[in-house]
């Protein structure tokens, strides 16, 4: 059963369309990576799926119902999102920030219950940030802060977590730290993880499913072996890439590439220019 999918989704800002007639499913309990060049609609798609921005037409379906009609608190119990640039946590301790993840479960005066406190500590433990609980968020390194934001998303107790470029501004070690944490959450707790990534090798290494976008449409969606190919990368990024195999994971990886000169490729060479893999076909 597919819990989350879009049908003929159209999203734009004013008169400018960003996502165009897009139909795609998100595999449940797997890691999905969305890739594509800057401005192709990756982040817009993520925001539309999580109802941060409205869609102009089409549908986003979750558990059989349209998210546009879902109660906000009920929706927040199903999906959590970590934006590309989280809001400032200035003046907050780690524990205070993570407690915000309990908002969907609070009522009345919003006081934290024993259950809330237990979930907060659990989220801190899982993300390896329990030792920072009483420290200011501002005093942490970039990698530590990112893990704290993920802890807040975990405290929301959702089955689905969406992340917009979670490794941005992090060095190589901290990037792996965050991605391995997400991989562990998926493996141990069956969380559905959906993330926008710029690094193609990270996407292929950590994702079970990849969605390659260009100009607001899907060029190819499937396993990393189906998406991480010379032809798909040529269509999406206009590059001539050499694809090899990661000796540790046997996943495909981009070994090297160069930009194609104007005229070296054409529209006709694109792979699956119209993607029709809507949920009903799976």
From TrEMBL:
State the source organism's domain of life: Bacteria
What CDD domains does the record tag this protein with? Answer: ABC_Iron-Siderophores_B12_Hemin (cd03214)
All residue ranges annotated as the ABC transporter domain in the record: 4-240
**What SUPFAM superfamilies does this protein's entry cite?**
P-loop containing nucleoside triphosphate hydrolases
What topology does it adopt in the membrane? Peripheral membrane protein
The subcellular localization recorded is: Cell membrane
**A molecular-function term among this protein's GO annotations:** ATP binding
- Chief subcellular location: membrane
Ordered alphabetically, the record's keywords are: ATP-binding, Cell membrane, Ion transport, Iron, Iron transport, Membrane, Nucleotide-binding, Transport
- Pfam families this protein is in? ABC_tran
Keyword Nucleus carried by entry: no
Q: Which PANTHER family match?
A: IRON(3+)-HYDROXAMATE IMPORT ATP-BINDING PROTEIN FHUC
Q: What is this protein called?
A: ABC transporter ATP-binding protein
**What organism does the record attribute this protein to?**
Marinicrinis lubricantis
The top of its lineage is:
Bacteria, Bacillati, Bacillota, Bacilli, Bacillales
């Amino acid at each position: 059963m597919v819990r989350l999918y879009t049908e003929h989704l159209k999203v734009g800002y004013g008169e400018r369309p960003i996502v165009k007639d897009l139909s795609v499913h998100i595999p449940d309990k797997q890691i999905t990576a969305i890739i594509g060049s800057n401005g192709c609609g990756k982040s817009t798609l993520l925001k539309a799926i999580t109802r941060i921005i409205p869609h102009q037409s089409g549908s986003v379906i979750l558990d059989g119902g349209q998210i546009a009609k879902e109660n906000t608190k009920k929706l927040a119990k199903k999906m959590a999102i970590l934006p590309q640039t989280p809001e400032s946590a200035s003046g907050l301790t780690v524990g205070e920030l993570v407690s915000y993840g309990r908002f969907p479960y609070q009522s009345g005066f919003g006081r934290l219950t024993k259950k809330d406190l237990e979930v907060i500590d659990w989220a801190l433990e899982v993300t390896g940030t329990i030792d920072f609980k009483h420290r200011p968020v501002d005093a942490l390194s970039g990698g530590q802060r990112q893990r704290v934001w993920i802890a807040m998303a975990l405290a929301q107790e959702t089955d689905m977590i969406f992340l917009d470029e979670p490794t941005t501004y992090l060095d190589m070690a901290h990037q792996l730290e965050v991605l391995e944490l997400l991989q562990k959450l998926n493996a141990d707790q069956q969380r559905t993880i959906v993330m926008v990534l710029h690094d193609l090798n990270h996407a292929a290494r950590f994702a079970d499913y990849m969605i390659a976008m260009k100009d607001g449409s899907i060029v190819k969606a499937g396993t990393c072996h189906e998406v991480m190919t010379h032809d798909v990368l040529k269509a999406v990024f206009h590059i001539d890439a050499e694809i090899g195999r990661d000796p540790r994971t046997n996943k495909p990886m981009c070994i090297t590439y160069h930009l194609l000169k104007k005229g070296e490729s054409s529209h006709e060479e694109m792979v699956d220019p119209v993607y029709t893999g809507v949920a009903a076909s799976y």
